[in-house]
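Quick one: structure tokens for this chain, please?
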Amino acid sequence: MLYWLSFLSDQLNVLNVFRYITVRTGGAMITALIFVFLFGPRIIDKLRALQGKGQPIRADGPQSHLVTKKGTPTMGGLMILLGIIVATVLWANPANTYVWIVLGVTLAFGAIGLYDDYLKVTRQTSAGFASKARLALEILIAMVACYYIVSIGREPFASSLTFPFFKDLLLPLGWFFLVMGAFVIVGAGNAVNLTDGLDGLAIVPVIIVALSFGLISYLAGNLTLSDYLQIHYVAGTGELAVLCGAVIGAGLGFLWFNAPPASIFMGDTGSLALGGMLGSIAVATKHEIVLAVVGGLFVLEAVSVIVQVVSFKLTGKRVFRMAPLHHHFEQKGWTEPQIVIRFWIIAVVLALVGLSTLKLR
């Protein structure tokens, strides 16, 4: 809404600052942060009162969790989503279609996660929404989003796959791009969901990836800068930097309450929503492969689960002591802070590697 104030800049010159994406990104970050700080404690108290016993802890997970995490409320993703919504509505350009597509995916995935968390809490079981139905719904939402992303872009570029390090290499996919794009969005959502297993483990890498894609969005949506860096220009995607700013602010606010020992868990409400958001931003900016590098920590966590399941079904043996990967290191004797901080370091390194692709062309 504040973007509209820029239309009055001919009457009051200072209002022209609201045209700048950088200013509005910073504003969204601060707004989301303050919102979560102010309303976080009330949301936590309300969720704790409603949930009683809190999030049910997996019986087949690390035994220490049955003691250290018992009674902690979940659905903390609600405070993140509310912060993102308030900041985005306040600071983003409401006429930008990309903003509403990405926000739509975020809220839709968040609703799926919320329902899953609700079932787990009310039934006091780690089994929530039926996996096949949940996956089918995620795919449907992602494919609809990809359809609209392609429809507002220029063909054949909009339905092509781009490659890092190559400025002119495109792989035209046609309508198959909807399948590929949906795979990226759904994969990102579930990869973040699998990573969310220790206090603070998922939210900091999410912030790091959001920071990286905030920069990528701004550059890809700027004709001059994208030409200088020889990356593909995607008109309108610069506005997604405002959304990324909101994620960073809300994420930092949430980390205040999620830092060990956590007062609240993100739950599927937050992890699915944030992962889906990052995936849809990657698809919109044509940096799908770069997401796999910048968000490589999430990829590692997801692959560890796939490898574990496939290995056990084919050979009856487990590759890891426990999956996802962070539980493997717990079983090896690493403390929770050691795992979390070391995984944060990995996330930073991978983000730097991914961002290097913007210049190495």
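The chain has a mean pLDDT of 90.
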